[in-house]
Amino acid sequence: MRASARFAIIAGWFVLGCGAAIGTAQADDTGSLYVAPGPSTLVSADAMRHYQEQSGGATRKLGDLIGSSLKSPSSHATELVVTTQCGRYKSATITYSDGSAKTLNLGNAPATKNDMEQAKAAIPILRFVDVAGCDQ
Predict the structure, then answer these.
(1) Is the Cβ–Cβ distance between 107 and 65 less than 8 Å?
(2) What is the pLDDT of residue 95?
């Protein structure tokens, strides 16, 4: 068999193999897929949400949620009231010495007892208000 004939046969098999791979690599309609740090590992959207709820959301401390909002260029914070409901942070209202106030949406982040105690120890002006009744 001549070299050009062998090349044609190999090229033909290659093209057929690529076509078969493309045909089987179509996405299904079960949901979005996220690419994990290793591009060969795929994680379902439900698994990613569960992971974020279990680890990502739980690691968001109250200090992270408030950020630098306690600082003001012209005034200082005199009171911080954080509203919780059903074990979740709802909002924070910061009152400043010049009489102004700012309200922050805390995105329904988990409010753990440990985090609340640490925040209370670190921020003396902090007061928690728990709203009765769950939205769930």
Answers:
(1) yes
(2) 93
DSSP label of 40: T
| pTM exceeds 0.70 for this model | no
Paired tokens of 113: 């007892």
Residue 96's contacts (CB-CB under 8 Å, 6 or more residues apart) are 72, 75, 76, 77, 78, 102
Distance, CA of 11 to CA of 81 (rounded, Å): 71
pLDDT band at 40 (very low <50, low <70, confident <90, very high): very low
Beta bridge partners of 94: 80, 102
Structure tokens at 19: 């076509």
Residues 70-76: contacts with CB under 8 Å, at least 24 apart: 70/94, 70/123, 72/96, 72/98, 72/100, 74/98, 75/100
